[in-house]
């Protein structure tokens, strides 16, 4: 808030000077309030409508403004203008969030973190709506709602429930890789500044010569990955539930602007069919030895929002926001998300949410969409239909962003993903545990699983938990079994 030496006169929302900030219009000091005190009535009505619905997931978060700068020539795999030349800068806005909790939930609970980025490019907005993990719990959008409900609250008690979480996970073996990361200390990042961000999904790109590639985006923290232990995260949850929000804001205010390096994995288009993993399966990474990351640029967050509601709460991201040079892939989750985000924004914010300053592109908009609640941008007397003979905008297939791939025709049906030679649900989780984690990581992982699965989880469910972790790694399964035996009796 700013201190004004001579404060301006309070007005109604119509700009009419108000007569009092303190007293309603009453009939004498003890008399009734007059209904025609339009100013006080307006204050109450506005207050009652002060909230929009919170995001159905990722409700608790915070954000900051910044820029993206290209550091390396990547024109060999994309023609996207904002990645066009070394040194080029693009304005951006980032929002980080927890997933399962509501608006007032603590920042430091065990959860994946959302890592949502909006690049205001000259070709329209590009949104990268990722997480701080390179994979996800499920691989088909039909399971997303069920997964999220298992993380939320029971219908009768309104309480979160570990038993429900393990029920879903153990019945959904494709979750094992993501649950391994979630139960490791990466499930409790120390700050938003010290976590990586990942597209998780595979996207496509196309260069100026028309050559296509499959890519994955990795935003690596230059502050270095740092996490809380389970105990430290719980202590911080009790001390300062807004710790991450406060930390990011304070760091930027101090001039410590957090930086992430963008690295991308690039796969030639033709490799996908024969790659040892199905490259479109969101529960898998592409091992770095197969596709070493290439440097692309850096993202710097250097400006705090002036108004939390206008900039953070009303910000809206969508995987449908792609720019020419970047496209989707056969990842079904990604395709499902392309529908879901615009739909939820229409409900959460309103028809014309894209006209709000935080969401509006810096590029010119020439659209045949018109009118609707709260519309204020318009194109005057522009024709309202296409094609027309009166100078309305005309689509350009050369500039347009459709990035396509061949689909073998087949019978319409409900199919599992095509299995590639090394695909299984537990292999990559096992290599993370055995080959990437150090002894401390492994110890914490086992202890975190035991802590979580001994809190309100039935003994029948614990048996399934042990089997699940044994499939990730036999040694880990034994540690979990021993730990659960030694922990408090199951419910
Ligand atoms: P590499 O050794 O080449 O890379 C391992 C990656 O794991 C690094 O990017 C590192 O990121 C990250 N990492 C380190 N500790 C953890 C942890 N406790 N939890 C999650 N990630 C961690 O191995 P591969 O590429 O062959 O992959 C092996 C396993 O590593 C995978 O099964 C996957 O679980 C994990 N991983 C792989 C990624 C990939 O894109 N290939 C990305 C992230 C994880 P950092 O720089 O942040 O330390
Ligand atoms: C937020 C749906 C998978 C990352 C949301 C929201 C919905 C949603 C409805 C609320 C948006 C809002 O109200 O503004 C889905 C569906 C998915 C899916 C249907 C699968 C089919 C994923 C995956 C990731 C992800 C795989 C990460 C890789 C995010 C992030 C946000 C979000 C970061 C918060 C965006 C913000 O900060 O405003 N999702 N989601 N989601 N989702 Fe997803």
Automatic annotation (TrEMBL):
From the record, give the transmembrane residue ranges: none
Annotated InterPro entries: Catalase, Catalase_3, Catalase_AS, Catalase_clade1/3, Catalase_core, Catalase_haem_BS, Catalase_immune_responsive, Catalase_sf
Q: What's the short name of a Pfam family annotated to this entry?
A: Catalase-rel
Organism classification: Bacteria, Bacillati, Actinomycetota, Actinomycetes, Micrococcales
Q: List each copy of the Catalase core domain by range.
A: 11-394
Q: What is this protein called?
A: Catalase
Top enzyme category = oxidoreductase
List, alphabetically, the GO terms of the cellular component aspect. cytoplasm
- Print the keywords alphabetically: Heme, Hydrogen peroxide, Iron, Metal-binding, Oxidoreductase, Peroxidase
């Amino acid at each position: 808030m700013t201190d004004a030496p001579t404060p301006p006169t309070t007005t109604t929302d119509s700009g009419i000077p108000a007569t009092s900030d303190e007293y309603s219009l009453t009939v004498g000091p003890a008399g009734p309030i007059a209904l025609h005190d339009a100013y006080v009535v307006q204050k109450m009505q506005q207050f009652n409508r002060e909230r929009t619905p919170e995001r159905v997931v990722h409700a608790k978060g915070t954000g900051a403004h910044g820029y993206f700068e290209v550091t390396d020539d990547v024109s060999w795999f994309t023609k996207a203008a904002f990645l066009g030349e070394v040194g080029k800068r693009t304005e951006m806005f980032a929002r980080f969030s927890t997933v399962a909790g509501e608006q007032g939930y603590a920042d430091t609970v065990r959860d994946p973190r959302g890592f949502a980025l909006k690049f205001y490019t000259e070709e329209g907005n590009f949104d990268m709506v990722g997480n701080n993990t390179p994979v996800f719990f499920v691989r088909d959008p039909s399971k997303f709602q069920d997964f999220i409900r298992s993380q939320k609250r029971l219908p009768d008690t309104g309480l979160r429930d570990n038993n429900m979480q393990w029920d879903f996970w153990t019945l959904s073996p494709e979750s094992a890789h993501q649950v391994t990361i979630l139960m490791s200390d990466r499930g409790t990042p120390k700050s938003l500044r010290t976590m990586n961000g990942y597209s998780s999904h595979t996207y496509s790109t196309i260069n100026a010569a028309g050559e296509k590639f499959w890519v994955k985006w990795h935003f690596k923290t230059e502050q270095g990955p740092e996490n809380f232990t389970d105990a430290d995260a719980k202590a911080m949850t009790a001390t300062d539930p807004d710790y991450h929000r406060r930390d990011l804001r304070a760091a930027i205010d101090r001039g410590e602007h957090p930086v992430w390096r963008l690295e991308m994995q690039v796969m030639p288009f033709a490799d996908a069919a024969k790659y040892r993993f199905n490259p479109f399966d969101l529960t898998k990474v592409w091992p770095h030895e197969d596709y070493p990351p290439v440097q692309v640029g850096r993202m710097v967050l250097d400006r705090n929002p002036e108004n939390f509601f206008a900039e953070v709460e009303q910000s809206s991201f969508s995987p449908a926001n792609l720019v020419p040079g970047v496209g989707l892939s056969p990842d079904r989750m990604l395709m499902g998300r392309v529908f879901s985000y615009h739909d939820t924004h229409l409900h959460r914010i309103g028809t014309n949410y894209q006209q709000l300053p935080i969401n509006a592109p810096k590029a010119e908009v020439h659209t045949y969409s018109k009118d609707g609640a709260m519309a204020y941008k318009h194109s005057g007397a522009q024709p309202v239909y296409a094609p027309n003979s009166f100078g309305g905008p005309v689509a350009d297939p050369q500039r347009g962003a459709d990035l396509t791939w061949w689909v073998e025709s087949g019978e319409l049906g409900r199919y599992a993903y095509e299995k590639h030679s090394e695909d299984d649900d537990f292999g990559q989780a096992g290599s993370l545990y055995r080959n990437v984690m150090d002894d401390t990581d492994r110890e914490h992982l086992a202890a975190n699983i035991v802590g979580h699965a001994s809190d309100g989880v039935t003994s029948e469910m614990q048996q399934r938990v042990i089997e699940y972790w044994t499939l990730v790694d036999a040694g880990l399964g034994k540690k979990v079994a021993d730990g659960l035996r030694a922990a408090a009796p199951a419910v």
